[in-house]
Amino acid sequence: MRYSGWQVIKQGLTGNRGWKPAWRDPAPKAEYDVVIIGGGGHGLATAYYLAKEHGLTNIAVLEKGYLGGGNVGRNTTIVRANYGLEGNSQFYSHSLKLWEGLEQDLNYNVMHSQRGIVNLFHSDGQRDAYARRGNMMMSQGDDAILLDREGCRKLMPFLDYEQTRFPIFGGLYHKRGGTARHDAVAWGYARGADQRGVDLIQKCEVTGIDVENGKVVGVQTSRGAIRAKKVAMCAAGRSGQVAAMAGMRLPIESTVLQAFVTEGLKPVIDNVITYGMGHFYISQSDKGGLVFGGDIDFYASYASRGNLPMMEHVMEAGMTLMPMIGKAKLLRSWGGIMDMSSDGSPIIDKTHIDGLYVNAGWCYGGFKATPASGHCYAHLIATDRPHEAATRHRLDRFNTGRIMDEESKGSQHNLH
Amino acid sequence: MRIKCPLCGDRDSREFTPMGHETYMNRPDDEGWSPAWDNYLHLRDNPAGVTRELWYHGAGCTSWLRVERDTVTHDILRVELASDAKRGNA
User: Fold this and answer.
1) Domain count of the fold of chain B
2) CA B18 to chain centroid
3) Is residue B81 one of the residues assigned to a domain?
């Protein structure tokens, strides 16, 4: 069924009895051309673009829980293309362009809202760094505006401009950045893939990857063995365990990142705001809750919940930046498992096993990458060549020294 | 999360900084780049379960500790001085 305003009126006048489930619930077949391990945003997007752009439809997406139950449903929903590093810059620019056409493409309302992102800076040195970043964004063809303090005050009068410790000097304004409804992104891709014949198989955990003579031949699952010509790993957060089934070790450690949401409030924060001197970023959801987060908890974790010290740290940073949020009541907090790569950038590549592909290491930035990740991964799986927007996200870059260290911290696990 | 430092006793985890997997205790001897360095800096088993890590007790005795910890439950299973652990490993 094609969704439209007319459909809403028609269904409304006929008691809403015509709505059908958005995707089927098929049993796994014995063999597929491509099996994708992981039914999150990236896995579903990969299946969608494989079907839509490469004409492959004999595909299964295997998900051990339910579709979109991982990090695509547990993030802070920010979409942006303000990267500076060669390789990342092209990739996230490609992603933002896909975002801008996504709702028409999927015929699904993902509530993509280009409300703008402001990265605040708090010193002369940081202003220079952000001006440089803005120039890099513009040279890539994206948008950036350097705001002074008064420019920031017009957009965000509620910030504490008078604080003496970290006075606000201005901000880098990326107007095309914003947010999207995270669950809807997973659902939209799931529906689009299903309509093109992809089997989305839930509650089907992959327990082994079958390799014969250096070539992948299928997977073992909790619902039986499935043969496959190609197998695509796409289980960020759990990439280490999935890769271990193929005897691989990845340059990845899993950690926990917490996020928080307050009770629903009237519209007060129009943009996404990031604090340049503390680990804190915030936006307001369409439902009214203030959604905010900080940095990872910094130790390896699969617990999906964080500890109090980082929570306190985030609250303190928030109070320093905008004291008004002290009046809001915190409603919920949650933790997501992050695939932290040692240089802070993701991996989309082939492996040493013929027909086995890896998509991993999204750190805390996987959501905004969802369309481009799926698009580039599908291109790689279908053609065995990297997409031009993802040529540098190689698995061997750590060993060859071609690391992608966006924050210039070094390529070591405790640094990102 | 509380960590029982062998020198200071049971302390708040805020006194400590995690450094990462205990791989960092065994720095390769190779002078040039080698697969050993790739293993040391990058590649990890990344277990969901028991792991051993280096933690630094910066706001306490400033010792390096080897902490055995469960990454699923956050339980701290064993804490020893990294220097003792290294001697034990050798």
Assistant:
1) 1
2) 7
3) yes
Inside any domain, residue B85: yes
C-beta atoms of A413 and B21 within 8 A: yes
Q: What is the token pair recorded at A58?
A: 């004999």
- Domain-located, residue B68: yes
Q: Which residues in chain A are contacts of B1 at CB distance < 8 A?
A: 307
- C-beta atoms surrounding A244 within 10 Å: 16
Task: Give the span between the Cα atoms of A84 and A398, in whole angstroms.
Answer: 20
Q: What is the ipTM of this complex?
A: 0.93
Q: Is residue B57 part of a domain?
A: yes
pTM of the model: 0.96
Residues of the domain holding B85: 2-26+49-89
With an 8 Å Cβ cutoff, is B76 touching chain A?
no
- What are the average pLDDT values for consecutive 10-residue runs of chain A, which has 416 residues? 95 96 97 98 98 97 96 95 94 98 98 98 97 95 97 97 91 98 98 98 98 98 98 96 96 96 96 94 96 94 92 94 95 94 97 98 96 98 98 96 92 87
Cα torsion through A374, A376, A381, A385, rounded to 10:
180
